[in-house]
Design brief:
Helices cover 52% and strands 7% of the residues. The protein is an alpha/beta fold. It has two domains: 123 residues, no CATH class; 150 residues, no CATH class. The strands form two sheets. A four-stranded parallel sheet has the order 2-1-5-6, sandwiched between helices. The chain has a two-stranded antiparallel sheet with strand order 3-4. Helix 2 crosses helix 13, helix 7 runs parallel beside helix 9 and helix 7 packs across helix 10. The chain is globular and about 60 Å long.
Amino acid sequence: MEWNAFWDRGHLAEYYRNEALMNGKTAAVHLESAEDEDFWNGMLQLNHPGSYHYIYSSKSKRGNETSGRPECLSFCGFLDKFFFVCIDSDTDSVRKGRNSRTDDFVLQTYAYSWESLFCHIPELQTRFSEINIHPKRDFDFSVFLSQYSKTVIKGLAMAVEDEKKTDDSVFNILSSILETQCQADEMLNNGELYVKSIENELSDYATSSGKESGIKKGLEVLRKRGIDESNAYLYVRGHNLYDIVVYIGKRCCSQKGLNFERDILKKDYLLQGYKETDLIQEDITKILG
């Protein structure tokens, strides 16, 4: 295949599809990056076992090797059950609600990212308690994430107070407020001071930006889109959530010979029984049958 054809989405999609099928694969699947393969392969094998050819990057229209969500979505219009894409939803669910994209042959996480799903309440705390040496004396992730969620939803609400137009700048502000590390004293009482610091910064921003009066309307908009105090934490920037959970978990496990990320957080990739993962499974069925 000539190089100059690689940036033609239709020709490239046909090439990936045919290559996968000729090699006995179930389908070709374009991911945002290689790091996504374990999650998406787990979800696919759970629903539709097979051998999938995963693609992590492709030639952009400028001829550069390109990865990420925009590159995946550049194939829309040329996808089918034998070549489809898997992406993080990012802020889509906050902006527009948890709407399926299977008509375009796109699988998505619904939560901000697949990393977010490993922080699910109460499964994370259950895994932590099962393997932890002294769970009753240690950090309670369910308490922490519940309070975190009740706090960050105000930031999400400020972004969508106008139902017809999302204020993207609020997502950037919220991301800058959500620190991915904390001091030892901020971990006390299940992260009470850490969450309080987020609450204070969001309050200051709401006042200074004049957005405080729109929070109530924004909360109503979010509820219509399936997001409330119980699950809002899954819809902030994925690495803000994931990284603070990993940071705290490593601190809790540092003296116990445990690898928090391997032994607890990512113990089981076959996540089931949550709204977001149930939606993913429904989408897989729609695409693959």
